[in-house]
């Protein structure tokens, strides 16, 4: 699986290097009046691709890998140009499923209710987004239906200190979580003298 990811990233990098200009330095949109017919056609292809992605469910790891391979094949068979291939790969990357299931426990293994959990979604194109929830009475939380390049989880609970690994960025190669196999975060109740935090 890691080899597939390395190959896909390499394909995207090669496409970028082969493209003379893949973005404008001033981040402005091209003037439609001076846009070539080829650019207009490419933009229409990308708009249709974006719309299709937005109307479908976020991509599983398998779907993402298969669709990137299909884009690469289309480019190498001359069906799409480099700019379209890069744009489609970026859009696919930004549409990966970022479902996440977690549980917060204290140092004694008991569930911690009411912890504030934040999920920050990273994107290649455009600004990411922030989503918030709280743990329930069993210390459980989840984010479902989110899509993006990456997911960063942080949590906070007044009068508690976060311990150990587990928090941070979820990358495509990170282990999947599900309702029966959650990421577990451990927090410790602060001593009375430290509870002003």
Largest sheet: 4 strands, mixed
- Sum up the overall morphology in one term: elongated
User: How many DSSP H or I helices?
Assistant: 4
**Overall pLDDT level:** 81
Oligomeric nature of the chains: single chain
Helix/strand order: HHHHEEEEEEEEEE
Amino- and carboxy-terminal Cα gap: 43 Å
Helix fraction by DSSP (H/I, runs of at least 4): 25-40%
CATH T-level fold name of the largest domain: Immunoglobulin-like
CATH class of the largest domain: Mainly Beta
Determine the structural class based on helices, strands and strand pairing: alpha+beta
Number of strands: 10
Radius of gyration: 21 Å
Low-confidence stretches are 17-28
β-strand amount: 15-25%
Looking at the overall shape, the CATH architecture of the largest domain is: Sandwich
Looking at CATH, the homologous superfamily of the largest domain is Immunoglobulins
Topology:
Layout: H1 2-18, H2 37-55, H3 61-76, H4 82-94, E1 96-97, E2 100-106, E3 116-122, E4 129-134, E5 140-143, E6 147-148, E7 150-156, E8 160-163, E9 168-170, E10 183-189
Parallel strand pairs: 2-10
Antiparallel strand pairs: 1-6, 2-5, 3-4, 3-7, 7-9, 8-10
Helix pairs in contact: 1-3, 1-4, 2-4, 3-4
């Amino acid at each position: 699986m890691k080899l597939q990811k390395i190959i896909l990233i390499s394909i995207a990098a090669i496409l970028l290097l082969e493209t003379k200009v893949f973005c404008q330095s001033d981040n402005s949109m091209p003037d439609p009046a001076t846009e070539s017919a080829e650019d207009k056609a490419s933009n229409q292809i990308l708009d249709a691709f974006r719309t299709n992605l937005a109307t479908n469910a976020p991509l599983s790891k398998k779907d993402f890998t298969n669709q990137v391979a299909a884009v690469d094949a289309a480019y190498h068979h001359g069906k799409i140009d480099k700019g379209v291939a890069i744009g489609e790969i970026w859009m696919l990357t930004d549409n990966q499923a970022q479902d996440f299931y977690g549980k917060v426990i204290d140092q004694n293994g008991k569930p911690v209710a009411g912890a504030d959990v934040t999920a920050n979604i990273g994107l290649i194109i455009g600004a990411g987004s922030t989503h918030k929830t709280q743990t329930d009475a069993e210390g459980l939380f989840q984010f479902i239906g989110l899509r993006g390049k990456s997911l960063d989880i942080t949590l906070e609970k007044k009068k508690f200190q976060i311990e150990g690994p587990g928090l941070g960025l979820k990358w495509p190669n990170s282990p999947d979580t599900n309702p029966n196999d959650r990421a577990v975060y451990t927090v410790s109740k602060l001593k009375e003298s430290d509870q002003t935090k």
